[in-house]
Write a structure and sequence with these properties.
Layout: H1 8-21, E1 47-54, E2 60-65, H2 69-80, E3 88-95
Antiparallel strand pairs: 1-2, 1-3
C-alpha cells in the first residue's frame, strides 16, 4: 500500500489559506472535566499508652497504666532477680474503642 507524501510546505500553505478565509483547521479543545476525589477520609484511631514488662523473648508478661511506671519497674526487677532471664519495661500503645 503506497503512502501519500505531503510536504510540510504544502500543509503550511493550506493552513495559512484556511486562516485567511477565517476557517480554523482544528476545533478548540475543551478543558478536561475535574475529577472528584475518591480517597476515603482517614479514620481517627485513638491510642492509649501503657507500660509493659517484657521478657527476653519479647513476650509481654505484665501491663501497667502509664502513670504506674514505678510498679512496672519493680515487677521487672522482681522477675529479673535470682539469676533468671532479664526483664525490661517498655511503652505499649493500644487502640481504644469508642
Amino acid at each position: 500500500m503506497a503512502r501519500k507524501v505531503v510536504s510540510r510546505k504544502a500543509l503550511r500553505a493550506e493552513a495559512e489559506a484556511a486562516e485567511k478565509a477565517g476557517v480554523t483547521a482544528k476545533p478548540a479543545k475543551k478543558a478536561p472535566a475535574k475529577r472528584k476525589s475518591r480517597a476515603k477520609e482517614p479514620v481517627e484511631i485513638r491510642m492509649k499508652a501503657f507500660w509493659g514488662v517484657y521478657n527476653q523473648a519479647m513476650k509481654l508478661v505484665a501491663k501497667y497504666d502509664y502513670t504506674q511506671k514505678k510498679a512496672a519497674d519493680q515487677k521487672a526487677d522482681a522477675l529479673s532477680s535470682g539469676g533468671k532471664s532479664p526483664h525490661f519495661v517498655a511503652k505499649v500503645k493500644e487502640a481504644v474503642d469508642g
